Amino acid sequence: MTEETKERGPQRPVRFYAVRTIAGREIDVALLIESRARENNLDIRSIIVPPKVKGIVLVEAPAAFIVSEAIRGIRYARSVAPGYIPPEEIAKVMKEEVAIRIKEGDVVEIISGPFRGFRGRVERADLEKGQIELTLLDASYNLRIIVSPDMVRPVREETHGA
């Protein structure tokens, strides 16, 4: 045991707790929790606002009552969800999505769904909405479909004007 550990006593495992908020106010709640933690010297280690999850702020602390104390009186914070969230789940939520740059004219292969194995040319890519419009190249007639970006992968071969 180091001197620092002896001074503070036994360490509790730090866990992540989900704070329910009003959707769209997650950053406001996170900033208010940070301010409250500094003012009241609360043992809050980190605050995470997941980019794709609405109405949730993740707070890392040794116990739920510390998080409850931090959100008490914050207008947009609703409650602390029961239980804690394992770090593996946090990693899944926060995993950086590798943005595949798919643009109009690219040839892609469909890797899931009913058209799996088919190739198509990208006619329109709206990655914010999560839609890619394809013209199937392997169909006997001109067939356009809309798929999710995670259902396709770029074909490695260079095909120009095909």
Describe this structure in words.
- There is one protein chain.
- The chain is α+β, with helices and mostly antiparallel strands and 162 residues long.
- It has helices at residues 3-8, 26-40, 64-71, 87-94, and strands at residues 15-21, 46-48, 56-61, 77-80, 107-110, 119-126, 131-136, 144-147, 152-154.
- Strands 8-7-6-5-9 form a five-stranded antiparallel β-sheet, with no helix packed on it.
- The longest helix is centred in the first third of the chain and has 15 residues, at 26-40.
- The protein is elongated, with a radius of gyration of 24 Å.
- The mean pLDDT is 83.
Total helix count? 4
Helix content: 10-25%
User: How much of the sequence is in beta strands?
Assistant: 25-35%
The global form is elongated
- Helix and strand composition category: alpha+beta
**Gyration radius, to the nearest Å?**
24 Å
What are the secondary-structure elements, in order, as H or E? HEHEEHEHEEEEE
Walk across the major sheet and give the strand order.
8-7-6-5-9
What gap, in angstroms, lies between the N and C termini? Answer: 69 Å
Mean pLDDT figure = 83
Number of strands: 9
Regarding quaternary structure, what we see is single chain
For the largest beta-sheet, the strand count, sense and barrel status come to:
5 strands, antiparallel
Q: Would you identify the regions where 5 or more consecutive residues have pLDDT less than 50?
A: none
